[in-house]
Specification:
The chain is α/β, with parallel strands linked by helices. Helices cover 45% and strands 18% of the residues. A 6-stranded mixed β-sheet has the order 2-1-3-10-4-11, sandwiched between helices. Strand 6, helix 7 and strand 7 form a beta-alpha-beta unit. The radius of gyration is 24 Å and the shape is globular.
Length: 333
């Protein structure tokens, strides 16, 4: 329809309607952000009650709940290497009322050992905040005649396969730590898988196996007593748990980094305003002195940082562990 000047009189109306629709979307988004959270929030913990992930999830939820003014309730969904809980997160509505405290490392490794996964971390999750990292150390039996990491590498190269390396099982982080060291340095040892750290501690301390690269928390009192020695930590900076122990970079193996990881995730599609608010209050929680002290007792050094850093860390961890697994041709047993 044209007016007296020959212009289409419907155009202004269409533009007005389009502008109104866009404005409505902005208004809805803003209203959602202002209203959120309006009810209880579920926090999936993909491990059983009482473990490290569960403890972190509960302590973090307690702090964030106060800041948001709504209860955060931990929902334990353990099993299948933390993939059951992750699958539940991927199925959840992206409305800000379901999140998960899980590990970037777990879900970087999972696709290589669980062939029928219903989720993909990069596709289905948004990493909001890296809460913290557990300290991993290069541990050796006291009788081993090496004083530092370079001497350990030299001994393993000189007599390939003579030294034995204890892990918690094929494809676990402790095993992959060794594979990464071997690929980076040529340090060849005989891998001896156990069912978990507690199963190999006595053998490591008494010299039946000589080396492991494990979370130091379970070993701390034994490091202090001299039952086991820690040659280096695998974090980017020195750990407050073992401030006198060098990093792997300081020990001459730059680029070797590994840690148990605790990250806050939400489903892909969660409104950006909600992610931003979660990041803000999560960072406040992570900086809380009480929370930091509680985490350090668990061997966890709190991290925090902007959401973009958590996203970048997800990409780098997927590449790191994917490369190690593929180069080592590691298969599920």
């Amino acid at each position: 329809m044209k007016d007296k000047r020959g212009y289409n009189s419907l155009l202004p109306r269409r533009r007005l309607m389009a502008g109104s629709a866009a404005g409505a979307l902005v208004a809805f988004s803003t209203a959602h952000a202002q209203a959120w959270p309006a009810k209880q929030i579920r926090v999936i913990a993909p491990y059983p009650p009482g473990g490290g992930v569960d403890t972190v999830a509960r302590a973090f939820s307690e702090k964030v709940s106060i800041k948001l003014g709504q209860p955060l309730v931990v929902d334990n969904q353990p099993g299948a290497g933390a993939t059951i809980g992750a699958a539940a997160l991927a199925r959840s509505a992206p409305d800000g009322y379901t999140m998960m405290v899980g590990s970037l490392v777990d879900y970087s490794i999972a696709p290589f050992f669980h062939k029928s996964l219903s989720f993909d971390m990069a596709r289905d999750f948004v990493p909001v905040l890296e809460i913290g990292n557990g300290t991993i150390g290069v541990l050796v039996t006291p009788s081993l005649p090496v004083k530092n990491v370079q001497e350990l590498i030299a001994l393993a190269r000189k007599e390939p396969g003579k030294l034995s390396y204890a892990s918690s099982g094929v494809g676990g982080l402790i095993h992959l730590n060794y594979e990464m060291l071997k690929q980076m340095t040529g340090a060849e040892m005989t891998h001896v898988p156990y069912k978990g750290t507690s199963f190999f501690q006595a053998d490591l301390y008494e010299g039946r196996v000589q080396v492991s690269i494990d979370n130091v928390l379970a070993h701390l009192p034994h490091i202090a007593s001299g039952k086991v020695r820690c040659l280096a930590v695998t974090s980017k900076t020195r750990s407050p748990l073992l401030p006198e122990v060098p990093t792997m970079a300081e020990a001459g193996v730059p680029g070797f980094e590994s840690a148990t990881n605790y990250t806050l995730f939400v489903p892909r599609g969660t409104p950006g305003e909600v992610v931003a608010k979660l990041s803000a209050v999560g960072n406040e929680a992570v900086k809380d002195d009480d929370f930091r002290a509680r985490m350090l007792k668990l061997g966890i050094v709190t991290t925090g940082g902007p959401q973009a850093e958590a996203q970048a860390k997800m990409v780098s961890e997927m590449k790191r562990w994917g490369d190690v697994i593929q180069k080592g041709n590691i298969k599920p047993t």
